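Tutorial handout. Part one gives the primary structure; part two gives the three-dimensional structure as tokens.
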Amino acid sequence: MRRQRGQTLVATMIVLVIISILAVVYFVGSGTGSTSARPDGKGQTTVGAALMKARDTECKQQLMQIRQAVQLGETVDGTFPSSIEAMRLGRDFETCPIGSEPYEYSPETGKVKCPHPGHGKY
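Part two.
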């Protein structure tokens, strides 16, 4: 009976150590260094990096939808909508989801881009 209690305690301690190690790796990272550092310095943890990647994708999708709206809003004589607000896409489409910077839109060329660091190629 006494021997079995000792084995149960040891097994419980081993399980707690393994869970602790997994939690540290999940929330802090494996310690191998960041494979791709973000220009804006956000998303330093594993969870944060995944969240920032999702927001990057959201920014790309918003820019694609704005560009499609610009093409649809182009008039017969070749003029583009006067602003992003004039296209009535909604307030979510006016700013970057990460830094909340307003998107830069040129009504002369119909080009739209995100000024957030690292989003220049979107």
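Part three, for discussion. The CA atoms of residues 36 and 49 lie 10 Å apart. Strands lie at 104-106, 111-113.
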